[in-house]
Amino acid sequence: MRDFVFNGLPSRVVFGAGSLSRLERELDALRIGRALVLSTAHQEKLARRIAESLGERSAGVYPRAVMHVPIETARAAREEASRRNADCIVAAGGGSTIGLGKAIALESGLPLVAIPTTYAGSEMTPIYGITDGGIKRTGKDPKVLPRTVIYDPDLTLDLPLSVSVTSGMNAIAHAAEGLYAQDRNPLMELAAQEGIAALARAIPELHQAPRDATARADALYGAWLCGMVLGNVGMALHHKLCHTLGGSFNLPHAEVHTVVLPHALAFNASAAPDAMSRIAQAIRADSASGGLYDLAKAHGAPVALKSIGMRREDLDRAAELAVSSPYWNPQPFGPAQKVEIRELLQRAFDGVRPD
Ligand code: NAD
């Protein structure tokens, strides 16, 4: 057994089909008066349904969450919350909506209740991101960690299959890197392996039957565990590459994670053999990197950066940016490894299957 330090994050999780109906009781437990409900424009119907169910305790709906949390949106939403005397924010949706809730919580100190409808995992972390003048600033603050998270698989039944697969791979990426994190601990390793296994089981089932209630519950359960890993331990090369590609080249978040993960794991394979064998075991494959590539490809997800909007001429700059401010990684990478990272990106660009 390795030595470890475990500093658990406080969070209350309510999980189960139909658990949205418990929202009001959860607000009572937090002694909350009036909640402003956030969503994207696409999920406004859900937000209105939630607001209606709260009756007098609804401070209205703010259905303007968008990708990357522009600071202007965060400011406007915060003013809306204050104008309507809200003493709580309820964020119903994926990472973009929960991200907006976090930005409000950061400045106002209002408690956040999250109702996730994708597998991105933001609801389990104290990490926030706000985009100001085209640059995404990220940080960590306990204020932004949702007080209560309601996981209701019924709300994911209509998540399009393509998004379900890439969002599931995004969740797996958190757990995979958690297995070789510098500050990993036995509890998060258990959560990571179980989370990967639940998602790897659910993805093929959802591919067969996207509205299957058991598979939806399994996937959301996996997402919870993977999100918990992301919130508790540090991420490495894979997340660095995805932040670079998403932030500087505007590539879609979950798809980038899906494409890059097998290649980042291949790069780390010899430095983190235990993590690789736990991932391979969880997905029932011979190798972590090849197995995850196959899982994505077999279920219709993209496996090449060139198919999700990356331009070949930007690969040099992407490698440069990634190595210029590296994260800790089991296989060190920095300016001295620029050639290897450029080669990794080329393989991800072309969609070559790693071993
Ligand atoms: P998203 O929130 O942008 O959602 C994508 C689209 O799917 C939106 O139009 C949304 O309305 C729609 N959608 C969501 N749930 C749906 C459902 N059940 N049915 C139908 N449509 C649905 O995408 P995401 O992948 O969840 O989140 C990505 C963002 O989250 C990125 O900006 C990323 O940086 C951030 N993120 C942050 C953290 C963190 O810890 N801070 C962790 C993971 C992701």
Strand content: 5-15%
Major sheet description = 6 strands, parallel
Q: Roughly how many Å is the radius of gyration? A: 20 Å
Which architecture name of the largest domain does CATH use?
Up-down Bundle
Distance between the termini: 29 Å
Major sheet: arrangement of strands: 1-8-5-4-2-3
Unreliable stretches, pLDDT < 50, 5 or more residues? none
Considering the protein shown, what is the CATH homologous superfamily of the largest domain? Dehydroquinate synthase-like - alpha domain
Order of SSEs: EHEHEHEHEEEEHHHHHHHHH
- Hetero compounds: nicotinamide-adenine-dinucleotide
Task: Provide the number of structural domains.
Answer: 2
Shape: globular
Taking all residues together, what is the mean pLDDT? Answer: 97
| Number of E-state strands | 8
Determine the fraction of residues in helical runs and give it as a percent range. 40-55%
Number of alpha- plus pi-helical segments:
13
For this structure, what is the CATH class of the largest domain? Mainly Alpha
